[in-house]
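1st attempt posting a full record on here, be nice pls
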Amino acid sequence: MWNDLSFPALPRRTSNVARSAPADNQPPPFLRGPGAFILHYVRAHLLQFTVLAAMIVGAAGCAVGVQYVMKLLVDAMAGPRHGNDAVWMALTLFITLTAMESILWRISGWLCCRTTVGVGVDMRLDLFDYLNGQPMRYFAENLAGSLGQRITATAGNFGALINTVVWRVMPPLIDFLGALVVFALVDVRMMAALAVFVVLVTGGMILFGERGRHHHRTYAGHSNNVSGELIDVISNMWAVKAFSARQRERNRLARDFGIEAAAQRASWMYTEKARVLHDICMWVMAGVMLSWCVHLWSIGQITPGDVVVVSVLTFRILHGSREIALSLVDMVQQFGYIDDTLRVIAQPQSVCDTREAAKLERKGGAVDFKAVNFTYGGSRDAVHDIDLHIPAGQKIGIVGPSGAGKSTLVHLLQRLYDVQKGEILIDGQGLQTITQDSLREALAVVPQEITLFHRSVMDNIRFGKPDATDEEVFAAAKAAYCDGFIRALPQGYDTIVGERGTKLSGGQRQRIGIARAFLKDAPIIILDEATSALDTESEMEIQRALVRLMRDRTVIAVAHRLSTLTAFDRIVVMMNGRVVEDGTAADLRRQNGLFDRMWRLQAEGMSLDAVVEDAA
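the predicted structure (as tokens):
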């Protein structure tokens, strides 16, 4: 029935987390620790959490009131049987408070579910927003499965934390405060003893739980890493089978599972130690309080109703304080899990927009590299002193051996990394002065390894232009010479391609990637070994289609097969991170330099790397 209640919908915030990092590239303040992280979302949904807290206080207060009304009922029933209106008044109040308590619990359950789920959505989106602002090097160093597991688990950890506070901490706390009031009406000394004892036990449990934080953090880290390792093995199952590595991978996972299990046991047993200590303390407290109560009754200082309410509240406080103590240990665990996630995901971003960054103004697609230097961290620059001007609309090919800096050059143009010296400009605008999103909107990229989503062929091609019509998708597919094989698939364009496109061959995936680039209305096309999985004839057909269809576009193509670049306006030859030759294919052939030697030897069937070794 609660689903029909009218309550304001939780707001869906538009997050700018990925673009709100301070100038030092540090994460936003709320991502710098679990306390600030949780407080951020509580503040963002303050109204819902305030109403929820009020309902919990009201429901728990009614529960304490019921216990005190039970005392009044017992005392009234100890009086005369006839004409005793106090009994019926107490009974009416008892039934009323019980009904109110039930109603408040049910409404608070509905609101807690609604609020926690809504916050979980915002939380995952914010973590994803920050994560997708990390450079590609970050994703090369962290397992995708582990990152996804951390984001999903963090929302779950937050939900568990809120549920712990709402259902296992607040009600016993209200019971304790209410019990103090009731005990004060019975005997002030009893109230003081209860307060001191519970505060000391709870404080001791908090300190004990804090000392176990490292156990919970260690377990959280191992758990997330093992999840990522398992997903990595499953996603590379072809390699596992192809290299007869099933037993090896099983042994490796068994070792990792064993390390995780040891960490889990340490975390679990620390919690069990907390339970044992608490049980001992509560046993002592129960014995003392009940013995004291019976003694006061025996000397006539309290009524039977007082004995009943003290007995009931004592056991209620016993169980409640155990819940609080164990919940505090669980909360330390949840904090540890969230802290582990933030330490991995909320690392400083090395590539981010400045606060003054503006959108790229498209003027044709001219590209300039000016004294560009970049290193991945080694002693030698990946590219060194690159000066290159590419006029708008020019088709340029980049060739050279592996490690020459070709892919690095196009990665820098996409701003997957920031240059360390020099600058790159598009239409006279420096890459670091424009937003990354507007930059990449101006680029259509076909990498060497095409990654497809676990979606239909239609969805994967349309990814390049979400608002494209079916006819535009079909036209792009025909231009990329993939319409024929797509229509031959079981469901045609509606066929699901599998994870990362595993249902398709490498050449088919590359054709779909090229169709996706054709479809995107971008002034600059980047082809990074985009046709390496195709046969020579198909590659040359697509290259000709590129030249024809991208007549008004700037095309930058990294290629190994030199013959596919003959129709391009210009070819740049790179070696050891430098540009060593630059000109048309015909001009470079006439110069009898490195390109000419590469051309002649490659025509004889040698690989480009072998050609360069021969040239050296």
